[in-house]
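Subject: for your reference before the review

Hello V.,

The reviewers asked for a structural picture of the protein, and I figured it would be easier to keep everything in one thread rather than splitting it across files. Below is the amino acid sequence we used in the manuscript, unchanged from the supplementary table.
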Amino acid sequence: MQKQNIKTKIRQTGTTTVGLVCKDCVILAAETKSTLGSMISSKEAQKIYPVDDKIAVTISGAVGDAQALIRILSAEINIYKLTRSSEITVKAATTLLSNLMNSYRYYPYIAMLIIGGADKNGYHVYSIDPFGGVEEEKVTSTGSGSPFAYGVLENEYREGMTKEEGIKLAVRAIRSARERDVYSGGKEIRVIVIDKTGIEHVDKEKIKELAQ
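And here is what came back from the structure prediction:
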């Protein structure tokens, strides 16, 4: 019951985020609307956070909780790299985050996250619930607009999509949620691409064209 109540609260706080694995990259996308009940608190909210050179996290839920998790995870990744003198894998970063969230399960962080990135083992996307539950996915979405995003993703996603195909699909999924979900919107759709070379922010004008 508590888990269901937490997920209901997250849906009520708004947001639509998307993560998908393509042939040669990972795509993460989100809209930029932030709400406080029925009031729009921001039209340019950041919902995608790089936490390492080739790893990023999308957030949905309570902004303060999500930002605290991002700060802790970024610090833990730096410690990991310093003490082990090696790059962290996406799975290891996900495990760090999962363990942190699970340790607070009695007073959980009100957040659902997507973590995606590239490492020596390939390209990965994981979804993490407020209690630290982890699922590796090829395509996933979180937030109040996720049912609308899934309608597009499940119909059009296929394994082995190219980078350009993945960007178009992510934008279409977020656009669908913005049009149907009252808590999703904002001024922009933001998309990043993560591949073996690092993180690329997709040009805003290109996204606008795709979103028309």
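For the response letter, the relevant points are probably these. The chain has six helices and twelve strands. The first strand starts at residue 17 and ends at 21.

Happy to draft the paragraph if you're swamped.

O.
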